[in-house]
Amino acid sequence: MGARRPGHPVLLALAATALVAVALLSEELLPRLEEMWSRHRARRQLVPVMAYDPGRERRAEQRARALLRSCVNEEEWAMYRDLGFIRVWGTQADGPADATGTGGAAYAYLIYPHRAIVAYLAQTHRLLNEYCVAFPDETRPYGSARLPDSDDVLAKWMALTGDEQRLISTANMHLPGRQLDPARVKRDLWRLSQWERARIRDAARNATSTPLDSAG
Amino acid sequence: MKPGHGEVLLAEGDIGLSEDELRLTKEFRRQLDAGLWAAVPVMDGQGRRNAQMVKTFDDVPRDADRVIFFPRAAGGR
Questions:
Q1: How much is the ipTM here?
Q2: Interface contact flag, A154 B70, Cβ < 8 Å
Q3: B22-65: pLDDT as tens digits
Q4: Are B4 and A67 within 8 A, CB to CB?
Q5: φ, ψ dihedrals at A48, nearest 5°
Q6: Is the residue at B33 inside a domain?
Q7: Contacts of residue B76 in chain A, CB cutoff 8 Å?
Q8: Which end of chain B is more exposed for a tag (fewer CB within 10 A), N or C?
Q9: DSSP A123
Q10: In this structure, is residue B5 part of a structural domain?
C-alpha cells in the first residue's frame, strides 16, 4: 500500500476555487480588457489631420471681410476697418439682461472678433457686462470650428441687430474684465470717440468746401 | 459662413419661379435642420442696415436678395 498524499484534495479544492474566481472575475475583466484593446487600437490609428494653411485662412478672411462690408452700415464698416471693432446700439428699454438695469440710459455693445461682446453705458462709458458667445461649426470642414474673424463679427452683428434678447440670453454673462482688460476697452471707447469727432470734422469740412470748390 | 472658407454659395434662384422657390425652400430647411441660424440683411425706414433673423422660409422677405446661414450661437468662455 502506498502512502496517501494529503495535499491532493487541498490542491483540487484550490484549483476549483481558482476556476470559479476566474469565471466570476472574467465578467468584470473582459469588458475592461476589450476597452483597453480598443483604446490601444484607436491610439495607433492614423487620423487625417487638416494642416493649417495660412493662404487658405487669408483668402477666407478676405471673403469674410467682403461679406461683412456688404451687410453692415458704412460707418460700422469704417469703424471695423480703422479700429478693429464695431459698436452696436442696444435696444432693450432697461438695458441688456442685467439685474441692475440701465435705468433707461442709452447703452451699446462693442463687438470684437473672437472676443466677448462688451456692453457699456453710452454716456458715461461705464462697462456693464461681458457676453461670451461663440459660433462653433462642429463639422470642422477645414479642421477648425472657428469662423474667420470678420465672419465672427458679422455673426454677432446679425444676431445682435436681429434678436438682441436671444443672443444675450444665449451668451455666458460675466462681469467686465474676465476676458477683455477693462483698461483696453476704455481706451477703445476713447479711440472711438476721437474717431467719431474726426469723421464729423471731415464731414463738416467736405460740406463747406464743396460749394466753394464748385463755385471756384 | 464656414471656418477656413468664409462665404459659400449654397443655392440661388428666382423666387418668382416655382421650381426655384421649391429648391430654395428645400435648401433653407436643410440648413436649419443642420442647426444653423438664418438672417436676412435688411434696411429700416431710416436707411439703417440691420439683420432680420428668420426661422421659416415664409419669414424671408420676398424682396430679400440673400439669406445668410451661420452656426448657432453658444455660450463661450
A1: 0.93
A2: yes
A3: 999 999 999 999 999 999 999 998 889 999 999 999 999 999 99
A4: no
A5: -65, 125
A6: yes
A7: 116, 132-134, 171-172
A8: C
A9: T
A10: no
